[in-house]
Amino acid sequence: MNIGKPHGWGFIGASDIARNAMIPAIRAQPHNFVKAVMSSNLERAKQYASETDIPVAYDSVAALLADPDIDIVYISTTNELHHSQTLAAAKAGKHVLCEKPLTMSIEAATEMVKACRDAGVVMGTNHHLRNAGAHRTMRRMIAEGKIGQPLAARVFHAVYLPPRLQGWRLHKPEAGGGVILDITVHDTDTLRFVLNDDVESVTAFSSQQGLASGAVEDTVMGVMRFRSGLLAQFHDAFTIKHAGTGFQVHGTEASLFAAGVMKPNPPGKVFLQHEDKMEEVDTGEHEDVYVVGVRNFVQAVEGHGSPSATGEDGLHSLAVALAARESARMGASVRVRYQ
């Protein structure tokens, strides 16, 4: 990729995903550099910067946004902070790549998208799974009619939350904790991308199975009804230690079975089944999904194409997750509200 000028990234949030996924992805791009990291605790920011070879540490969003060497910010703080931080970044003229879910309400997410649009900056949502070769291949095959008319889908995204992440996600509903806002948003975005369809309504049941406390769920099962009439089952959890992930789409002519594809890496496998014949599908050479996402975002900043997942995509996945959470609380089907 030819980059017109260097891009300096500022991290709002000294997070695990920034350390393990985003720093390598950014440094894999020519002329892209992580210039600074911000944490509300300056000593933590300094320690994080030292451990990750980031030049500057800040303890406020304002100070980071005032840095002239930064033109892109990556936001990975807890979910209730994304809204104000995105608005501040847009006002400062910085491009924004935000973690999912975008925020805690449709109204706030809509305001984030509008603020970036009005400021003329690129906004993306870090929905990394749509960058996987497996999902891109499934999307292409469905669009080409390889399985006929899609009728049903299933997503199995029940995993075990690593101990290092067992903090606010399990105990703080005010920060957007819980498996629905953490994982169901991923299911939604991946289903939307693969099927090229939108969710109309959701029916869901949630539970606590040993990790979460208070008003936070660690398990959810449910069904999404898409506008085409397709029904999609989903099972998301923080509590399942001994199972792989999976994604299936069943059509009038054939079915697609994908295994190990709801985790970012390794790539997993995709199979096409027609009657009694099952064959593995070539999904191309595997590339790290975060590297793909960062490359596409930088290209959008350069004026070429759009982010892998836009701010609008993030708004849509949030809307479905909020509907799933409401359904689980009410014990009834809920129509998705996108605005």
Automatic annotation (TrEMBL):
It comes from the Bacteria. Residues 135-256 form the GFO/IDH/MocA-like oxidoreductase domain. Residues 9-127 form the Gfo/Idh/MocA-like oxidoreductase N-terminal domain. This is Gfo/Idh/MocA family oxidoreductase. PANTHER family: BCDNA.GH03377 (PTHR43818:SF11). GO terms for molecular function: nucleotide binding; oxidoreductase activity. The keyword Iron-sulfur does not apply. It comes from Candidatus Chlorohelix allophototropha. Keywords: Oxidoreductase.
